[in-house]
Write a structure and sequence with these properties.
Three copies of one chain form a homotrimer.
Chain A: H1 11-31, H2 36-57, H3 63-66, H4 68-83, H5 85-90, H6 92-116, H7 121-143, H8 157-172, H9 177-198
Helix pairs in contact in A: 1-2, 1-4, 1-6, 2-4, 2-7, 6-7, 6-8, 6-9, 7-8, 8-9
């Protein structure tokens, strides 16, 4: 249960990731006509879920429990989504962008935290993917929706795995931290956001 | 993975909560025509699920693993529900009461344990809600039912959050432990049990 | 978060269990027409899921995170299932066998690891069942399939519980380790694999 205070991902990056993820989750929940508590619950699940699983898999007490900024960021973003509902529904395309940004942030933060806590290549890859898609998968399961990650179509787990692998390769090559983070983040956001726009699809395994 | 033996919630309260939760879970599973193993599995999930997640999020080894009373209470309540089936199906309204009592017990025990283990306000609130509804959400997902927590209608996560927040406020105000526990418990049970009787509904977020 | 290096289950047994579980998962995912990433994701979930939950419930950092052999075994088995697709689909009955072998391996390894880490009878039983069926339940939930464990019909959780209880009884009786492991494994595989062949069904709770 130790933490390594000198080796932490910066707090503000995690808080931004949580707020963006919670916003994407809450917006979807509003469109599904959940009640207020349900929307806030989905916001918390989307914003914090991946990080909680990440920390538990690293043997750490989840920061969402110990640091009040995390829950407040998720609840604030959830309330913001409800308040901004009418404005927000006009810009549906924006949600895809929020989704993509949250995925990129969650994966990069997750891989970085895994590496800082001593996980090897495959362990950090696993945690990066789980941190990235964990919140969304849980949200889909709780909401009774088909889990989008696994179906042919949009890049989601694929984008997360690609970005996490790139991060770890760049790290092996000694790329400066900021450049490495930005490149991995950009690849994830592009793969996730651009794929439906351009009709890129992942390949059905049976067609290989 | 330390425990704080002098700071524990009394064992008998947790065992009662587990038995009540397992009874509610098993009764629902019998009505869904699960087989015997399925009923006992649902009883264990409902009785122990929330507490396992609570302990893992606090960085503790789940008491359900270390203390044999927990699994035995859940299995005993599950078997009891099967044996009492014919009597039990006559009193369907009782299940709603069991559900409400279990929710109240799980939330109060969860918040208390979180506070005793050093969680701040939002962390204890998060753990209280998760401990309260975790078993039921898992049960619904495993059973292929729509997760009731999120839909407009009965108070569930809302009751849990309300009671957990009341507990933490009363604690800040220095209210005696027993009074604080009873008030939070009563508010949760009332909000959960009375809401369907009186037709109270939570508000759809889109209507705000 | 300590591990007990002298008290570990042999690595190769766990790797075999993971590969067999991942193969069973991937084969099912191919038949459901998931894309390549989805197939690999299901392979990882089926291969590693039960073990991750087992380790978290024991208060250990999951070995899947720390030891690269685990993720590689799951990914390798998943890729193997995709490559061997045409051969594999001819031998559909084989998947039932893989499923049964994986269940037996996961349960025996899970109970053994729980006992080595100080869990009492009921705790080890709980962890054995969860380790055995955890991957499959998660896979079903993620895939949007009804969770097979709970329905009347094939022995699954029942086989896991039976084998775990037998393991723990034989251990109390001082049965040699290898004999104990093989007997528990054989009972699980037989109960799981033979039940659909012979039409054995678990009993609906309402019929008792």
């Amino acid at each position: 249960m130790d933490t390594f205070p000198l080796l932490q991902v910066p707090l503000w990056i995690e808080v931004v990731a949580i707020a963006v993820g919670a916003l994407a989750g809450a917006a979807g929940a509003v469109r599904q006509r959940f009640d207020l508590v349900g929307v806030l619950f989905v916001a918390v699940v989307m914003g914090l879920g991946g990080g909680v699983v990440r920390d538990v898999m690293l043997g750490l007490r989840p920061v969402a429990v110990t640091n009040q900024a995390y829950v407040l960021a998720a609840l604030g973003a959830g309330l913001g989504a409800v308040v901004l509902l009418r404005v927000v529904t006009r810009f549906v395309r924006l949600f895809g962008l929020f989704d993509a940004l949250a995925l990129g942030l969650f994966v990069v933060v997750g891989v970085e935290k895994a590496v800082l806590n001593g996980a090897p290549f495959t362990g950090a890859l696993l945690i990066g993917v789980v941190a990235g898609i964990g919140g969304g998968v849980t949200r889909d399961m709780i909401s009774g929706l088909p889990v989008q990650v696994l179906r042919r179509g949009e890049w989601n787990a694929a984008a997360a795995a690609l970005g996490a692998a790139l991060f770890l390769l760049l790290r092996e090559l000694g790329t400066p931290d900021l450049l490495r983070d930005l490149l991995a983040f950009a690849v994830i956001v592009l793969a996730r956001y651009a794929s439906p726009l351009f009709g890129w699809q992942t390949v059905e395994a049976g067609d290989l």
